[in-house]
Amino acid sequence: METLKVNSCETHIYRALDEVTARTESFPVMEEIPGGEELSTPCEYCSQPAIYVVANA
């Protein structure tokens, strides 16, 4: 199975959840990025800082 991780801001979290579910056909896991790291991690859909990492495990 393909391992997939998507960084997402608050605005695009549902899009990231949908994408991981569709591409991996498994239930996604959503975790908050630890404080401080979100400033250097961009959202995969826009240029805002990512707040969450969505993965399939």
Structural description of this entry:
- Helix content is 21%, strand content 21%.
- By secondary structure, the protein is of the alpha+beta class.
- It has a three-stranded antiparallel sheet with strand order 1-3-2, with helices on one face.
- It starts with a strand and ends with a strand.
- The mean pLDDT is 90.
Task: Please supply descriptive tags for the structure shown above.
globular, alpha+beta, single chain, 1 helix, three-stranded antiparallel beta sheet, 57 residues
Structure summary:
The protein is α+β, with helices and mostly antiparallel strands and 57 residues long.
Number of strands: 3
Task: Give the overall pLDDT as a whole number.
Answer: 90
Described by strand count, sense and barrel closure, the largest sheet is: 3 strands, antiparallel
Q: Going across the major beta sheet, what is the strand order? A: 1-3-2
Radius of gyration: 11 Å
Shape: globular
Secondary structure: helix percent: 10-25%
Which stretches are low in confidence, meaning pLDDT under 50 for 5 or more residues running? none
- What's the helix count? 1
The amount of beta strand, in percent, is 15-25%
Give the helices and strands as they follow along the chain. EHEE
Question: What structural category do the secondary elements indicate?
Answer: alpha+beta
Distance between the termini: 10 Å
